[in-house]
């Protein structure tokens, strides 16, 4: 199947057996490493005709995990033949209605095809908004109302990413920082960015390497406060 087929048929499914509660949250990849959710009574069987509350086709392509915060699902995707736009989408978790979308022009455009990552990095969310990173080099934050708070272009600051398949590392977070891991065939680094301003809190250079692992903050107190 070619990429055009996938772009036309990406769907999001929510089971009708589970009503999303106000305290249900999924704030990062693997829920910030906790792998825990407050969801209960989830179904073990479903099909295209049974157990589906709603489904929605999306205009772009995303390989990241969705987030959930106070009844809102947040997703990321790329659009266009050269990943021309990097997009955060907000969808009502009960109805599937599109609440808003925030497209950003991709800094380092790259052919949109199967062998390269396409919005593979899962974002993070907290009470202030959503923080997303894309392999085109763009790191940015959006409020819960869909307004751009700040934006960084990491490839312009620290050089283009050198990797045959792109980057797949998801973001991690603390109460005040977003953690970005850049491991590739060029200068690699671990970066902590202030959530409020988008400015560096610190940057640690790493040996040149290729990996797609995601960092985890080994501090359960921080994770429990966010949840």
Strand content range: 25-35%
Q: Number of DSSP helices?
A: 3
Low-pLDDT segments, ≥5 res: 1-19, 222-227
Fraction of residues in H or I helices: under 10%
Backbone shape = globular
How do the helices and strands follow one another from N- to C-terminus?
HEEEEEEEEEEHEEEEH
Mean pLDDT: 84
Kindly describe this structure.
This protein has 227 residues and is mostly beta strands. The chain contains 3 helices and 14 strands. It has helices spanning 3-9, 154-158, 220-226; strands at residues 11-15, 52-57, 67-69, 72-79, 85-92, 98-105, 124-125, 129-133, 138-143, 148-153, 172-173, 177-182, 188-194, 200-206. It has a 4-stranded antiparallel β-sheet, with no helix packed on it. Strand 4 and strand 5 (85-92) form a beta hairpin.
List keywords for this structure.
227 residues, mainly beta, 4-stranded antiparallel sheet, 14 strands, disordered N terminus
Please describe the topology of this protein.
Layout: H1 3-9, E1 11-15, E2 52-57, E3 67-69, E4 72-79, E5 85-92, E6 98-105, E7 124-125, E8 129-133, E9 138-143, E10 148-153, H2 154-158, E11 172-173, E12 177-182, E13 188-194, E14 200-206, H3 220-226
Antiparallel strand pairs: 1-2, 3-4, 4-5, 5-6, 7-8, 8-9, 9-10, 11-12, 12-13, 13-14
């Amino acid at each position: 199947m070619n990429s055009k087929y996938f772009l036309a048929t990406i769907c999001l499914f929510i089971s009708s057996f589970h009503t999303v509660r106000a305290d249900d949250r999924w704030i990062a990849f693997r829920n910030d490493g906790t792998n825990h959710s407050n969801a209960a009574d989830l179904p073990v069987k479903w099909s295209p005709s049974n157990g589906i509350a709603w489904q929605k086709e999306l205009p772009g392509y995303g390989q990241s995990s969705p987030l959930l915060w106070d009844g809102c699902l947040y997703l990321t995707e790329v659009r266009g033949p050269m990943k021309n736009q990097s997009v955060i989408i907000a969808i009502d978790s009960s109805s599937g209605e599109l609440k808003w979308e925030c497209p950003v022009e991709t800094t380092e455009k790259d052919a949109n095809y199967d062998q390269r990552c396409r919005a593979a990095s899962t974002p993070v969310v907290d009470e202030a908004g959503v923080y997303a990173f894309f392999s085109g080099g763009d790191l940015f934050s959006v409020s819960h109302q869909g307004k751009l708070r700040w934006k960084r272009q990491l490839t312009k600051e620290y050089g283009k990413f050198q990797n045959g398949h792109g980057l797949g590392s998801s973001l991690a977070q603390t109460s005040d920082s977003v953690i970005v891991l850049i491991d590739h065939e060029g200068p690699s680094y671990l970066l902590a960015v202030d959530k409020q301003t988008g400015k560096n809190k610190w940057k640690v250079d790493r040996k040149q390497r290729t990996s797609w692992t995601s960092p985890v903050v080994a501090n359960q107190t921080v994770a429990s406060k966010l949840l």
